[in-house]
Amino acid sequence: MNTIEQFNQHVMGSYGRYDLVLEKGEGRTATAEDGKTYIDFGSGIGTNSLGYCNEKWVEYVCAQVKSIQHTSNYYYTKVQADFAKKLCEATGYDKMFFGNSGAEANECAIKIARKYSFDKYGKDAERNIIVTLKNSFHGRTMGTLSATGQDVFHNYFFPFLPGFVNAEANDIDDLKRVLAENKGKVCAVMFEFIQGEGGVVSLTEEYIRAIFEECAKDDILTIADEVQTGVGRTGALLTSQHFGVQPDITTLAKGLAGGLPIGVCLASEKCSGVLTPGTHGSTFGGNPVACAGGNAVLDTVLAEGFLDKVNQKGYDFFRKLSELPEVDHVDGLGLMIGVKLKTKDAHDVAKACLDRGLLILTAKEKLRFLPPLNITEDEIDSGLEILKEILAD
Ligand SMILES: Cc1ncc(COP(=O)(O)O)c(C=O)c1O
Questions:
Q1: SS3 assignment, position 133
Q2: Which residue segment(s) compose the domain that 30 sits in?
Q3: Quick one: 48 and 62 in the same domain?
Q4: How many structural domains are present in the chain?
Q5: How far is the CA of 179 from the centre of ligand 1 (A)?
Q6: Using one digit for the tens of pLDDT, what is the confidence trace for 82-108?
């Protein structure tokens, strides 16, 4: 029995997978069981932010594995304290909570928003609605699935949690309508600056400003889900920094620990004291090995000039993709790019790329590019050559 047959015999079939068994990786190249190599334009859905087995990352992670791997949250570790200090200082947030995934980070944000209003306005006010956007994606737990504004994820799992209302993304009038219809009952508006799973759809600057203006009028918390857009992905540590705004809460995950499971919820002073002992927790949250990976990512991404390079590479990548004749349009920022094709099916193209040695993602009907942040211009060009040939076929 080969690996794929063995796997499928024992693992639930909740994913559509390619018939590819990856064995190792180096830099921006993954190698399969049969020795074939692949340029990686997907980084494990934006997670291997420093590529495979980055030297600094390996050094930090191995040192941590050899010293202490887990302690529980009854105790403290320096590696967690160092990580939290770095992240809070670099993002301007007061405090953070440790989880293990994007969904967990968002669950924490939802709980903070609800309890903030409960503490301040009382239970009877029932100020607990969270407005989320249509076409959003916030995770697969029942809470974050309820927050997600895409019907395609809502089949089968009824009933969902009450207290989530959707507004049309990039439609200021609709946002105002939803807030007016639920006046006095809304505790937060939650959004992605660029809807990743929704097909790499950017919110407009005007709409982003409207979210902050409308929320400020009524003490409504702003929650930015930067699980996919954060940690340098769009060319700034947080995408909010491109727009000069500071949401009350920001969630991060994917690229934060360079491929190890982590999720954090960052909170401003206004709501950083909401979670009191016993109100929230996670056995694995803040795992020291994951935090060591996170320290390697933060030390690299925050080093002088790194994010400038992400911006430059993202700009060049975006331009080169726009010039391809089969490309209808390109959206995104930095190294988070979505491409709508004119005639070809994105999923067929992704499969053809795989056959030719290029790992590439899709999101809805688009091709999606989330390469490691330290990819080189030459590697981008090599991958683009493969894509070009396939699009020209
Ligand atoms: C914006 C956003 N939020 C939340 C999630 C859920 O993250 P996880 O799969 O780590 O729970 C994702 C995953 O794709 C995401 O893109």
A1: strand
A2: 3-53+306-392
A3: no
A4: 2
A5: 25
A6: 999 999 999 999 999 999 999 999 999
